[in-house]
Amino acid sequence: MRYWRKVVLWVCAAAALTAAGAWAIPASYLLPSNRVKGWLWRKPPSVYTPRTLYRHLDGAADLYLSYGFRQAKTVEFYRGPEVVTLDVYDMARPIQAFGIFASERPEGAKPLRAGAQGYTVGGLAAFWKGPFYVKLSVVEGKCEALEALAKAASMYLPAPAELPIEFRYLPTAHRVRGSERYVKRDALGHRFLRETISADYNVDGKTAALYISDARAGATARLVYGKLADYYRSRSKDFAPVEGLWEKAFTAVDDSLGRVLVTRQGQFVIIAASREMTRDQLRALVKQVALVKAGGRRGGAPGKNKRR
Asked: Where in the chain are the domains?
């Protein structure tokens, strides 16, 4: 209950500020000078908007903009010869903050208990929390206090450190921890697949990936499903309809993904893919999907679930 209270308060405050045209990352959301002993602000924070972000992220600004970037505040801390930059990016929605975080997270990073899914690698610490994506970068010196600075910075962001609610659409049984992903557009190389969450699954030693694309409306989902059906019908000799799975479904073989099973449910298009599982095993995995409404309550019977 406490989590939902925080979510409601945060959403209401953000909506009010946006409606007033006055949204900005509050100064109180930034780690203060000397909060971590001896680490002081070198100068007041810099502010970046969608128009000026390229000045701070030359070559990477477009990626951030594609994930809904709204504003960033940057401040430099120093302690003696050591200098660390703190970047707080407001991505407008938790799912978008998670998306940009996951797109930049390197393999083999060391876990860090800061925000949600924090990590450190080399001279970088990063995490996301609510709609914020946070990075701390060592500019000068070794900075052994990098983790302490990251943990302290997380405390000043009031949003909850929880996976975005969209991931509650995915089954929890057999899900590979930390495998969650979000792609805002062009998922699986298809321009019409947008707002797509996914995760990996391991069932009896066999792996699969499950994707759920939110088309926002049932009519749009039918169009997306039709485009996928046309795509696989023209490219796969193993294309075949699947009966008894929500509104409509088919299976096919994809050169990159292996066997795929595609179905639709209301405004959602669901794809399961594996090089190891059979059609029936993919069907069993897809049947675990129970789409939930925005308030967290599970929907009705298959084929009747609606988000609103």
From this structure: 2-155, 165-286
pTM here? Answer: 0.81
- CATH code of the domain made up of 165-286: 3.40.1000.20
Reference 228, options 268, 286, 283; nearest CA is 268
Distances (CA, A) of 57 to 23, 78, 257, 291: 21, 21, 33, 37
Q: What angle do CA 179, 181, 187 make, to 5 degrees?
A: 135
**Main-chain phi, psi angles of 118, to 5 degrees:** -65, 155
Token pair 């000026």 is found at 52
Structural element, H or E, at residue 7: helix 2-19
What is the fold of 2-155?
Protein Transport Mog1p; Chain A (3.40.1000)
Tell me if 293 sits within 8 A of 282, measured CB to CB.
no
Q: What CA–CA distance (Å, rounded) separates 206 from 301?
A: 28
Which amino acid is present at 284?
A
Q: Quick one: CA torsion of 97, 99, 103, 105, rounded to 10 degrees?
A: 60
Q: Which amino acid is at 33?
A: S
pLDDT in tens, 98-113: 999 999 999 889 999 9
| 205 burial type by CB count under 10 A (0-12 exposed, 13-18 middle, 19+ buried) | exposed
